[in-house]
Design a protein that fits this description.
By secondary structure, this protein is of the alpha+beta class. Helix content is 30%, strand content 22%. It has a 7-stranded mixed beta sheet, sandwiched between helices. A hairpin with a 2-residue loop joins β22 and β23 (591-594).
């Protein structure tokens, strides 16, 4: 099959995007629509004394002004967290009420306080400026370190010490025993810098209400339309049944996790649409994205590794503070706990892992999942410790890794953290990456850089991650309020064309092409004859959405199951038409053929017969139509892995790091489209390198005001900051889904931070510098170089 699985087919969807024919939420317009603007908290912590909206309401063109009281009277509830975690004693974490609009007090700079609905967007924004907000400043908590200090101001009066939860994982006695027996113990103080997800498309919402049917339709930039509907109807708008709300997520210009949470603007538009009787639209500006979209990472970690004299890893322990921001977002507590701790054994045969996490509230934007979500943090901790351990033992860092790799013949491998890794070969990934970067020639290149007065280093990250999360039952038993299955319907039309209806959602991943390739491969139909429908709860019966590299493993898994059902029914139809039995029908290259005969029918003929059955078709045995639906709940997660190697050169006079070469050798299982996979890896690398070298969301340490509220202050990587990447794949098929695919979307963001920082530390090793905290800016590196030179004299 020329366009089937494994082929580098150009993306079907790119034509309309490149021609400006994409349809994003901001492109959705109604003739009589109104516009919504939001007054946001001007301080990070303040008690609301009064809100005077009279001047705003009196402005010509203003239709209504909305406060928290209005929403409460209408029966609106809170925005929930669906993954709360639990304390050491089994009690549930503290979950302060998270209202759509601030009630009584403001908890972070940018929190929505009042909304204005007007005839135009400019009028709505002007009216916001007329609202008189009287408030009393309260002491603000700008960071987790300050939040944890004794006597620190409280974000919430009923949350002592600002600690939402004290979560522990692992066998403390086993850890203590391992560390007591260790020949070497190495320790790491690490900071996971706070990141601002910056999708190309800012969030936007358009809501409409039908009074005759008492139903709502909402268009929004969202990764998980069905979860959005479910949570809305169960919690935030509990007076609604799910059939009364249709959620449509059209083309979405990037999500990376930040378009999964519940957001105030969604509900404000829904409320205003019913109140005014007209569609209501809100389009976020980039400056609003910085202060209203969920942030990510922001952990302070103390980790240690116990190592035997021969370099074998005995145990890893980690204790960290994790910043939830002012509220617990939808997946916020899950990231620094389960998703982090269970991956702390990495790719190694580690006998014991122990993790302790204190989830803290601060007066900052809430944090939630962002590309990788817990796995970049775990890979960074483990791979930095491995480098330090190799130095302590006195062996090469590559040899240190090889001595501890899980052997290829040990899979499926049960880890000490409770996972069972599906498949892998880390030696193969490492060897392939070493060859691609010409590791044997590095010493010569390093010598040449030194001759120019510069520092050159090489660093790597050998990682694995958990993706395609499932099955649902254990997750629900651990506190999740959502399942992790996926749903896909295959509808074969009378002309032989195929419509795929999936609960997975594409926001840049190329689903229209990849899913079509699977169909083309299985049914031997042209790629152009396959259409994908997704992102609409009115068209898609159900689904969970896209996050955690789950689309092709779960949505694709459900697709394969449905295609198998279609083929089974086609064989029944062919059996009746060809006067045979289904067990004697073969499906070969798009044709159904009776074994050992010349009787044969094309797939397109079978499709037509399914809808126009002949007289020989007994309806009690074979109903008309050719459409099948499958729910796929995987028996296990998938575990992509690989080796990334970064070569970096540092200007000795300025401290500026330049990535001169970057190689990735990843195991993603079966690859559906190599070109799409390469693009996914490239994008993840840009984000991972951004964290390692550039990006950092900063708050004033007195007022908790955001200081990096635009791209003038928040440093995103530019094109000339990145090299041409060398990307390679290894296919170790996973048994966890029918396709054998593991997922690829987060690899770059997971591996790059550790690989880049390890390269920097390797470059500065002659100066005795063994750690640079992220982001490793030129200034930090320059200061470290000069401090080291001062020590050396």
């Amino acid at each position: 099959m020329i366009n089937g699985i494994g082929k580098p087919v150009r993306r079907k969807e790119d034509g309309r995007f490149l021609q400006g024919q994409g349809r994003y939420t901001a492109d959705v317009n109604f003739d009589d629509q109104l516009h919504l603007a939001v007054l946001r908290a001007p301080v990070a912590h303040g008690k609301i004394n009064s809100i005077d909206t009279r001047a705003a309401a009196a402005l010509p063109g203003v239709v209504t002004v909305i406060t928290c009281d209005d929403l409460e009277k209408a029966g609106y509830g809170e925005m929930p967290c669906v993954t709360p975690t639990f304390n050491v004693d089994g009690s549930k974490q503290h979950l302060p009420p998270h209202w759509i609009l601030a009630k009584d007090k403001m908890a972070y700079f940018g929190e929505p306080v009042v909304a204005v609905v007007a005839e135009t967007r400019l009028i709505a924004k002007d009216a916001v400026e007329l609202i008189e907000l009287d408030y009393q400043d309260l002491p603000a908590v700008p960071s987790i370190s300050l939040a944890a200090e004794e006597g620190a101001p409280l974000v919430w009066d009923d949350v002592p010490g600002n600690q939402a939860c004290h979560w522990v994982f692992g066998d403390k006695a086993a850890i203590d025993a391992a560390f007591s027996e260790a020949a070497h113990v190495v320790s790491l103080d690490a900071v996971q810098n706070r990141l601002t997800p910056s999708a190309m498309e800012p969030r936007s919402v358009v809501a409409d209400y039908d009074p005759g049917k008492d139903t709502y339709t909402v268009y929004l930039s969202n990764q998980n339309p069905h979860i959005e509907r479910m949570i809305t109807c169960r919690t935030t708008m509990p007076f609604l049944e799910e059939y009364q709300l249709r959620v449509i997520a059209p083309d979405v210009g990037g999500g990376f996790g930040s378009k999964s949470p519940q957001y105030s603007e969604n509900y404000l538009c829904l409320y205003a649409a019913k109140l005014t009787g007209k569609p209501v639209k809100w389009v976020g500006e980039r400056s609003e994205s910085f202060v209203s979209d969920t942030h990510a990472r922001d952990h302070v970690t103390q980790a240690s590794m116990a190592v035997a004299a021969d370099g074998k890893i005995l145990a890893i322990k980690s204790a960290h503070l994790a910043d939830l921001g002012a509220y617990s977002a939808i997946f916020g507590p899950l990231v620094p706990t389960v998703l982090y701790a269970t991956m702390l054994s990495g790719v190694y045969t580690v006998p014991a892992v122990y993790a302790e996490c204190k989830l803290m509230y601060t007066n900052t934007v809430p944090t939630d999942a962002y590309r990788g979500a817990g796995r970049p943090e775990a890979a960074y901790t483990v791979e930095r410790l491995v480098e330090l351990a190799a130095e302590a033992v006195g062996i090469d860092a590559i040899e240190m890794r090889r001595r501890n790799f899980i052997p290829a013949d040990a899979f499926p491998y049960p880890t000490c953290t409770g996972h069972t890794y599906d498949s892998g070969d880390y030696h193969q990934c490492l060897d392939k990456a070493l060859k691609a970067i010409d590791y044997d020639g590095f010493a010569e290149r390093q010598h040449a850089a030194a001759a120019e007065g510069n520092f050159r280093g090489i660093g790597m990250c050998v990682y694995t991650e958990v993706a395609g999360v499932g099955p649902s039952q254990p997750a629900v038993m651990m506190g999740s309020e959502i399942g992790f299955y996926e749903v896909t319907t295959v509808r074969v039309n009378p002309d032989g064309s195929v419509t795929v209806i999936t609960g997975a959602h594409s926001h840049g991943q190329g689903h229209e092409t990849s899913f079509a390739q699977v169909v083309a491969d299985k049914l031997n139909v042209p790629l152009e004859s396959v259409t994908l429908i997704h992102g609409d709860t009115g068209e898609v019966p159900y689904g969970t959405g896209t996050f955690g590299s789950r689309s092709i493993s779960l949505g694709g898994g459900a697709l394969v199951l449905s295609l198998d059902k279609v083929i089974i029914k086609c064989k029944k139809i062919a059996a009746f038409a060809l006067e045979s039995t289904p067990d004697k029908i073969d499906f070969i290259d798009g044709f159904f053929k009776v074994k050992d005969s010349d009787r044969i029918m094309a797939f397109q003929e079978i499709a037509n017969l399914a809808y126009v059955p002949g007289a020989k078709f007994p309806i009690e045995e074979l109903e008309p139509g050719l459409e099948e639906t499958s729910f796929f709940d995987p028996p296990n997660n998938t575990f992509p892995g690989g080796c990334h190697i970064c070569e970096i050169e540092i200007d000795a006079d300025t401290g500026k790091p330049s990535i001169v070469n970057y190689v990735a050798a990843d195991d993603f299982g079966v690859v559906i489209n190599p070109m799409i996979v390469d693009g996914q890896v490239h994008g993840g690398l840009a984000q991972g390198i951004g964290q390692a070298l550039f990006e950092h969301t900063i708050f004033d340490q007195d007022t908790a005001q955001m200081l990096t509220g635009s791209f003038l202050d928040y440093c995103m990587p530019r094109a000339d900051d990145l090299p041409s990447f060398t990307v390679q794949t290894i296919e170790n098929t996973t048994p966890s889904n029918p396709l054998g695919a593991k997922g690829c979307g987060e690899a770059g963001a997971i591996a790059a931070p550790a690989a880049v920082v390890n390269a920097i530390c390797n470059a500065l090793k002659p100066l005795g510098v063994n750690h640079i905290p992220m982001p490793a800016t030129s200034e930090k590196i320059w200061l470290a170089i000069n401090a080291a030179r001062s020590r050396i004299g």
